[in-house]
Amino acid sequence: MRHNWSTLMKIRGNLSTFFNQLFECELCLEPDGSSTGICEECLNRLPYMGLACPQCSESVSTEGLCGRCQRTPPAYDYSYCSLSYEHPLPHWLHRCKDKRDTRQISRIQTLMLMARPAFDDQPENHPDIVTCIPTSHRRRFWRGFNLSEELARAVADDLGLAFHPLLKKTKHQEQRGRSARERASSQTDMSIETNLDLTGKHILIVDDVMTTGSTLHTAAALLKESSAQKVGAWCFARTPKTR
User: Fold this and answer.
1) pLDDT, tens only, 191-211
2) Is residue 170 part of a domain?
3) Start and end of every Double zinc ribbon domain (predicted)?
4) Which domain holds residue 72?
């Protein structure tokens, strides 16, 4: 079933790339032939992340951990977000996740990998396993895919690492539309689902959008309870800090 769906998405992605080359940049309507569907000038103007806390990825004015992470650090050891969740990203994510526009998957994967974290050559800083934030069976059935998993598979392939779905959602709980306080206080129903020995492993969790970090915190805590030594996160986008 997974193989058939992946093949279908690749075919659609290839067709989308072909037709994108015949038209113009989606954002400025200038001629464009890139696989992202946007021209180089618009690509350079996307909302890339600026200076951010190395642990929670929240925007900061000075280098180093933010005050919140110094006081109450999350379970994940670091995080990285490729872009800030600002125009046009919400539109693309809405088309992908709510309108089931699978053509957006390839675009999001490409943009995420273009703005990548720098994993240095030190073995302790390089992940061993890539996993993803799971979605509920109901949500997956409705969409036909889990965007976080599609991004994680692309990241794993790019890094030359194994992808393993280590976590599962035990109950659907919609997070969008909830306030930061509601997200932080809500109980994310998630559990470990693997027979792999995670002892001493460095695990990289991939997700699409990071808002408060509460879901990543829950996932990282579960992985560390299963003896993972280090857990980091790489997300496509981070919601801007609210003033």
Assistant:
1) 999 999 999 999 999 999 999
2) yes
3) 24-70
4) 49-238
Cα–Cα distance, 37 to 16 (Å, whole number):
9
* Per-residue tokens: 168: 């599962």
- In terms of pTM, does the model score above 0.70? yes
Q: What are phi and psi of 158, to 5 degrees?
A: -65, -40
For the record, the structure tokens of 114 come out as: 């273009």
**Residues 82 and 164 placed together within one structural domain of the fold:** yes
> What CATH number has the domain bearing residue 147?
3.40.50
Is 58 part of any domain? Answer: yes
Instruction: Write the CA distances from 230 to 51, 69, 89, 134, 222, integer angstroms.
Output: 23, 16, 30, 19, 12
C-alpha–C-alpha distance, residues 218 and 64, integer Å: 23
168: Cβ contacts below 8 Å, ≥ 6 apart: 134, 190, 191, 192, 193
Q: Are residues 147 and 202 in the same domain?
A: yes
Position 243 in a domain: no
For residue 80, list its beta bridge partners.
234
